[in-house]
Amino acid sequence: MKQISEKAYAKINLSLDVIRRRPDGYHEVKMIMQTVGICDTITISKTDDKGIFLKVGDAPLPCDKSNLVYKAAEMVMQQFDIREGVEITLDKNIPIAAGMAGGSSDAAAVFRGMNRLFELGMSLPEMQKMGVKIGADIPYCVMGGTALSEGIGEILSPLLAPPKAYLLIAKPDIDVSTKFVYENLHADTLSYHPDVDGMVQALESGDLKGITDRMGNVLETVTEKAYPVIGEIKKLMKAEGAENALMSGSGPTVFGIYRKKDTAEKACAVLQKQKIAKQIFVTEFVLPEYTPEVNEIMSGEFGKKEEEA
């Protein structure tokens, strides 16, 4: 095999709580992650020339060691003493700096792709252990699907997928620094915490209203305050029939959940007319084809809570 391609799906946070800031500076989180049908494509080819050659097309992204894609490939090549070179092409579709884990998902696709291309035989937990060293969202992105994420994001519990619904996803014409958001979040003084456990129960029972009623993201207290357009988009989505609307991750992307596709599409047209967002998508929840069965996902040591390990 000389070349492979991998899809790198975006994620949203159906719920995001920050428990505390740890002494090491990381934030302890409790959140529900969900893959959605917006994806980048990673193509990896073997080359005769040694090294890593990254192409990102017209996307305003670096092609050097500062890119998570490059870091992931370099980590695999060093770990397995791969002497051949690789050319990696990134076709970008996920909004950049949007709170949708685009960079982490791209890196996760590199771990999966390098594993296939060089027939390395890495298990899912092995790829996750490598990934967390360069990005807290990467272990989830390696797996995909619906999951409860705890710790700094590395403790993962697969969940049943939500009932079928349609998503309107909108990113306003701003970029948000995750570092800025977390530096300005005062986790110890938060007066509101979303009902993450209640949402887990709603997922288990397939209750869409129970899910949408419990949507919450404590990072909105920072990002929405700095960028009021986020609140404006949420309000507009709900006025146009969304069951609920929420900012994803550290923002600024907002998603609304709709029971009917035509309602989501009509709301999309309203957002486009208002010119309130730069990138707008109508999509669905997805279970990526690379996601193993739940009983296989947690078969390794990675992802188990410390008291269970």
Protein described:
This protein is α+β, with helices and mostly antiparallel strands and 309 residues long. Strand 3, helix 1 and strand 4 (85-91) form a beta-alpha-beta unit. The two termini are 37 Å apart. The model is unreliable at 293-309 (pLDDT under 50). It has helices at 68-79, 102-117, 124-131, 138-143, 178-183, 196-205, 208-213, 220-226, 229-239, 261-274, 294-297; strands spanning 3-21, 27-47, 52-55, 85-91, 146-151, 155-158, 166-171, 216-217, 244-247, 254-258, 279-284. Helix 1 packs parallel to helix 2 (102-117).
Give the uncertain stretches in residue-range form. 293-309
Structural class label: alpha+beta
Order of helices and strands: EEEHEHHHEEEHHHEHHEEHEH
In the CATH scheme, what's the topology name of the largest domain? Ribosomal Protein S5, domain 2
CATH class of the largest domain: Alpha Beta
Radius of gyration: 19 Å
Domains (count)? 2
**Proportion of residues in β-strands:** 25-35%
Principal-axes shape call: globular
Largest sheet: 7 strands, mixed
> What's the β-strand tally?
11
Q: Percent helix among the residues?
A: 25-40%
Straight-line N-to-C gap: 37 Å
Give the CATH architecture of the largest domain.
2-Layer Sandwich
Task: Report the total helices.
Answer: 11
Arithmetic mean of pLDDT: 91
List the helices and strands and how they pair.
Layout: E1 3-21, E2 27-47, E3 52-55, H1 68-79, E4 85-91, H2 102-117, H3 124-131, H4 138-143, E5 146-151, E6 155-158, E7 166-171, H5 178-183, H6 196-205, H7 208-213, E8 216-217, H8 220-226, H9 229-239, E9 244-247, E10 254-258, H10 261-274, E11 279-284, H11 294-297
Parallel strand pairs: 1-8, 3-4
Antiparallel strand pairs: 1-2, 2-4, 2-5, 5-6, 7-10, 7-11, 9-10
